[in-house]
Design brief:
With about 400 residues, this protein is mainly β. The chain folds into 2 domains: about 290 residues, Thrombin, subunit H (Beta Barrel), CATH 2.40.10.10; about 80 residues, Immunoglobulin-like, CATH 2.60.40. Helix content is about 5%, strand content about 35%. It has 3 helices and 25 strands. Strands 3, 4, 11, 12, 13, 14, 15, 16, 17 and 18 form a 10-stranded mixed beta sheet that branches. Strands 5-6-7-10-9-8 form a 6-stranded antiparallel barrel. A hairpin with a 6-residue loop joins strand 5 and strand 6. The radius of gyration is 23 Å and the shape is globular.
């Protein structure tokens, strides 16, 4: 008798890593290479958490199909022409509140640059070519500012802005391969005020085929095909079904290319109003192409967000920061009672529902009394900040 012994070796799965990310520090002018992020290969889709703040409780009712705008379609498509966002929505309500206007602030100026979207409390998703010469790491724009709630319908004093500290982009990025994506890291966590969208991927192309998607952008330059005179000071909304789908791009066949200023604007999906996921950003190729966030790019960018501690706290020093507001509603005075005395330089600011500053003061003790007699009646919002970063927000009512 012949015995045959078969030994089964344990199956091993090779680890897979995303392409490396390069960071560029706008202050120092230095580049750095991040370690490649490991991917979860057995997941076919995923997305990061999104967030809208208590001060932005209202959620915009976005259209769930294109048929309501059938009379204003881009010819030969099922995608609408851009519409003035303020004419349809409250711009300070989620997710419209997450739209970002990027400015070129080199040499003290304020030139139109690109569009983007908040994807954490202090990170913006946009395009790499807004800053770098195409296909290279040559820096064209060395000084950038991000602003939320920017629109001609809103007073500038009611907008919030922050300088861009760093930019993260894909090593060897190539527009033709759908790699025209970048994360812009901000000095201040203005996303605490606006809320932010998720970023996500889905390996299944059929998920996107004729899927109804949305866009928010700041077009800045005119073409012969414009219905409106674009000048960069107005937020526009468009939506419709996408049908140009491949490994690297999401777009709309026969759609005219986007105009200057729209670059970096997200194409996003939404479910039940609040679950908004950006799947790509507008680049400069035809078919209204958006550089697609695929699995590799997703895990590379999530690694950036994880390493930069996406949260509403500035540091461990503020992780346990809490405050009691009383009485609420308040009529003549408001007490702020902190668990511990906040760090030196901590500032309390109070805003009305339109984002106008009502009161500001430095907090020098753990129990603070504020005279609210002259404050407007209605809902107000307390923002506590340190070193120009918001670390806590609370609403209250003034009677």
């Amino acid at each position: 008798m012949i015995l045959i012994c078969v030994i089964f070796a344990p199956t091993t799965h090779a680890q897979e890593f995303a392409k490396r990310i390069i960071s560029y520090d706008l202050k120092s002018g230095q580049f750095d290479t991040l370690d490649a992020a490991q991917m979860i290969t057995d997941k076919s889709y995923d997305s990061t958490p999104n967030m809208w703040t208590v001060s932005k409780r209202e959620i915009v009712d976005l259209p769930d199909n294109i048929f309501s705008d059938y009379s204003s379609l881009v010819p030969s498509t099922l995608f609408s022409k851009p519409q003035v966002a303020a004419g349809k929505f409250d711009i300070q309500s989620y997710p419209v509140s997450t739209a970002v206007k990027l400015f070129n602030t080199t040499n003290g100026g304020q030139g139109d640059l690109c569009s983007g979207v908040m994807i954490s409390d202090r990170h913006v998703l946009s395009s790499a070519h807004c800053i770098f010469q195409a296909y290279t790491t040559n820096v064209n724009i060395p000084d950038v500012e991000a602003r939320i709630f920017y629109d001609t319908s809103i007073e500038e004093s009611r907008t919030y802005s922050s300088k861009v500290n760093k930019i993260y982009f894909i090593e060897g990025w190539n527009i033709s391969f759908g790699e025209d994506l970048a994360i812009y890291e901000l000095e201040e966590n203005i996303g605490v005020i606006s809320g932010w969208m998720s970023i996500g991927y889905n390996d299944d192309d059929s998920f996107f085929d004729n899927r109804h998607m949305h866009k928010l952008a700041y077009p800045s330059f005119n073409t012969p095909f414009n219905d409106f005179p674009y000048n960069g000071d107005t937020l526009y909304y468009s939506h419709g079904n996408i049908n140009f789908i491949n490994d690297n791009f999401l777009g709309v066949k026969k759609h005219l290319s986007g105009v200057g200023g729209e670059s970096g604007s997200p194409i996003f999906d939404h479910q039940k109003g609040e679950d908004c996921v950006a799947y790509g950003v507008l680049t400069w190729l035809g078919n209204y192409s958006h550089s697609r966030i695929n699995k590799e790019r997703y895990y590379a960018f999530v690694d950036v967000l994880d390493k930069n501690q996406v949260s509403t706290a500035v540091s461990d020093e503020f992780d346990d920061l809490s405050v009691q507001l009383f009485p609420n509603p308040a009529t003549s005075e408001l007490h702020l009672k902190f668990k511990d005395k906040p760090a030196s330089g901590t500032i309390a600011r109070i805003y009305d529902v339109q984002g106008r500053l009502v009161h500001d003061m430095e907090i020098t003790d753990k129990h603070v009394l504020i005279d609210v007699n002259g404050f407007p009646i209605g809902t107000l919002f307390l923002h506590v900040s340190h070193n120009n970063r918001i670390v806590l927000t609370r609403p209250f009512i003034k009677y």
